[in-house]
Amino acid sequence: MRTGRLVLAVVLGLSLATPAAADAQPWRDARQPPDRRAAELIAAMTLDEKISQLHLQPDAEHQRFVPPIPRLGVPGFRIANGPAGMGPADDKPQKPATALPATMALASTFDTGLARRYGRLIGAETRALAHNVSEAPDINIARVPRNGRTFEGMGEDPVLAGALAAADIRGIQENGTIAEVKHYAANNQETQRFSIDEHIDERTLNEIYLPHFEQSVVEGRAGSVMCAFPKINGVFTCENPALLQGKLRDEWGFEGFVQSDWGAAHSTIGSAAAGMNLEMIDGTWYGDRMKQAVLAGQVTEQRVDELLRPRFRTMFAFGQFDHPPVLSPLPTARHDATAKEFAERGMVLLRNEHAQLPLDPAVRSIALIGPFATRAKTGGGGSSAVIPTSTVDPLAGLRQRVPGAAVTLDDGSDVARAAELARGADVSVVMVGDNETEGKDRPSLALEGTQDALVAAVAAANPRTVVVVKSGGPVLMPWAASVPAILQAWYPGQQDGAAVASVLFGDVNPSAKLPITFPAADADTPANTPARFPGVGGVATYSEGLQVGYRWFDAQDRTPLFPFGYGLSYTTFAFSGLSVRNTGDGATATFTVRNTGRRAGAEVAQLYLGFPAAAGEPPRQLKGFSRVSLAPGESRRVTIRLAARDFSVWDPAGHGWQPVRGGFTVSVGDSSRSLPLRASLVR
Q1: What is the CATH number of domain 33-74+178-324?
Q2: E-strand spans in 600-672?
Q3: Strands (E), 265-423
Q4: CA angle 371, 144, 654 (to 5 degrees)
Q5: What are phi and psi of 306, to 5 degrees?
Q6: Per-residue confidence at 62, pLDDT binned at 50, 70, 90?
Q7: I need a labelling partner for 200 at 20 to 30 A (CA). Which of 177, 345, 404, 444 fits?
Q8: 265-290: per-residue pLDDT in tens?
């Protein structure tokens, strides 16, 4: 038994705590509060040991890794990629994990309970694969739909992103894994991402680009925050005291640690003063330069202690000193089933003329066509990519669902050949999409290559055509009016084929909604000038202000292809009986949702608030939502509560939230452009 403990200690980088050692090293006493244990540990460290814990030190096996200090019982610290599963973390050998549907698909569910389960799976696998931190969730607002990382985020609205992020974080952290919400803040484009200077006015920054980070910290209790690459108003975020100290710690009460993005640190003294706690990837600024700065009196050793304390106290609070994560097998079968459910729940039915969907299981022949029909679309590119434990390709998924049908695959590379195949089939299913990736933005929202021509040709050849779109964000659809059914599947993850088949054949009734507006043309998006995106002279000017996403379309009176919050179902719903009243500092809105169709299904009731004109806000803003599951003919009374903050705007003069007085409009419905219930409210 003693030998086994010794081996385990060597593997974990720990020293065994005998009673005498525990007396000599009081931070090993788990009965003490985390802050005290952290302070006791830091007091016992040498300056070199302290500096060794301020930055990552990649070795032959690990890239995102802080080595242990065996003499003090400090375990190794390993960081994993996110946010749609435990990424490979640049480990050698790389470890497979469950490739979940893209975070954009999670956002489409408008379901905080499901978001918590999504996070719980990620946290469990991160710990099982012996890592301490999951770099998740990514919640940057989709200001630029062409952003190469749109698929990683949660759409264009801070209320939706904040609610889902807080739930996701709670799930990740349930079993002792630290969630690292990113990228703080306004990391909204990949073009010039290492140097771009974003000029954002104070009101826009606080109303659009910060509230969901606040909710992640205050409600989600995130243990870590990743500071991002860009400058905001001339200051890099990882050395920005207004963001790292003023907002995070002073205003929001954040107790965790701030880690830089991969190479996002740009200084020693500035970053230390601002409160960046951990440098990724190496010790360029927090290694030898930090030691020299301390010896020269430019950074005090007390400041070094203050930088270390948040990470250590977080590790103590999460039990990572007492019970470090160790390599364990994954419950792959159970997680496969969960990943399939997540993918099904995140798919948005955009069009369904003449009830083309669900497909009849008695169908005899299916033409499966397109470049995204050949293999499972497990995710986007870059650091978020997950090595899947298994995959279900579209062909396998359809054949498993309808074993009696003849399913023929064509990759769509020859448009004429594909159209001919479609002409002879009972149903044609065309799968198109995009390949978003970290490191570059898309040149356009248009589908690449001949995909538009492919859809048009197949639809002309077979009137029973279904288009399945696998994209990380909006795509242009010049053919939308010519096809009877469109299913937005996002990046479905490793259960792609099985999940898509379930929705197409009605085993699952789609209930997701768009968390991002689909424009009819590239020029319809708000960041549609060079000065706004990608920027001029290294500066991206956010002159659209508060008009982001659907706020822009409403303010500019532009008609989108599909609006924010939109999504169809295989059943129908009706809204009635809106009642609104003030309640103390806030208000409540109560209304009825009824399933008017013949199938059980779920509707997402959405509440939008219109401010008095003098407030200078966009016409409508999402302030609350409620997902309601109903049997055919069933109705339910739904209440959405509004807080005082919901009736406030950011006041740049006072640098705080200011209540607005006057007449408000409360609107309720199933999308930002379908709001059948309206009521007035005076504050």
Answers
A1: 3.20.20.300
A2: 601-610, 621-630, 635-642, 648-651, 656-659, 663-669
A3: 348-352, 365-369, 406-410
A4: 155
A5: -65, -30
A6: confident
A7: 444
A8: 999 999 999 999 999 988 999 999 99
Reduced to 3 states (helix: H, G, I; strand: E, B; else coil), residue 386 is coil
The tokens 């379309």 sit on which residue? 553
Estimate the crossing angle of helix 301-317 against helix 288-295, to 10 degrees: 130
Residues 6 or more apart whose Cβ sits within 8 Å of residue 78: 62, 64, 65, 89, 130, 131, 132, 133, 325
Catalytically active residues, by annotation: 261
Omega of the bond leading into 185 within 30 degrees of 0 (cis): yes
Q: Which fold has domain 571-682?
A: Immunoglobulin-like (2.60.40)
pTM over 0.85: yes
Residue 6: predicted pLDDT:
30
Distant-in-sequence, close-in-space partners of 474: CB < 8 Å, separation ≥ 6: 145, 445, 516, 517, 518, 519, 561
List pLDDT tens digits, range 585-607.
Answer: 999 999 999 999 999 999 999 99
* CA pair distance 568, 309, nearest whole angstrom: 50
Q: Dig out the tokens for 485 from the structure.
A: 């059914």
Counted residue by residue, the chain has a size of 683
Tokens read off for 521: 């043309």
Domain residue ranges in the chain: 33-74+178-324, 336-505, 571-682
DSSP string covering 547-604: --THHHHHHTT---SB-TT--B-SS-EEEEEEEEEEETTEEEEEEEEEE-SSS-EEEE
Q: Is 315 in a helix, a strand, or coil?
A: helix
In this structure, which topology does domain 336-505 adopt according to CATH?
Answer: Rossmann fold (3.40.50)
CB-based burial, 370-404: b 16+ in 10 Å, e otherwise: bbbbbbbbbbbbbbbbbbbbebbbbbbbbbebbee
